[in-house]
Amino acid sequence: MVVKEKLKLKSKGLNDDVLLDASRDEFNSIINGYYRLIGGEDKNYDKETSRRLRAFGEELYRKRAYDKFTAFKADHDDMIIGNHLRLFSFCEHHLLPFFGEVAIGYIPNNKIFGLSKFQRLVDKVSSKPQLQERLTYQILEEIKNRLEPKGVGVVIKAIHTCVFARGTQSTSAEFTTSAVDGIFKENNNTKQEFFSIINSDGRLRL
Question: Which of 77, 79, 158, 188 is the most buried (most CB within 10 A)?
């Protein structure tokens, strides 16, 4: 039997977003400055670019602010996996996008998420400048803190446009990071079961 339950969690305060609070003219000036930095010409600059970017920033802010992580009571402890979850974030070193897929698996300890919350959680944590390594552990910690499962595992595979566009300019590099905790760390069979299931179609190529 599954019974709906609201988790009572201390919500972390969100800092005001300085750019989104800026005046339209100030914001437009900032975006125009970046446009010129990457080679854009003033005569080609369209103020609609600022409006679109501001709207995108507001969309990311809403993802960070989302906190309706409804959980359910459950009386089973079979592994639950969300696979091929969409990932989009920004490298905090160059402010260039990185993107890919996330796999999350956990073994419940009387609480489970609604299935849509897997993607919501990934979006929440990745909607600001990040490092892939840190992001992997932050997703794991979110699951731990919200559900207190018997075990949890997270795998991220991503392409970084900062590697593609600058420096080494690699056209094929993909980066995989993983983090495990609880029974996933203590029991190698459990960890291997998780890795086997998320790679059953070969897309992650682990």
Answer: 158
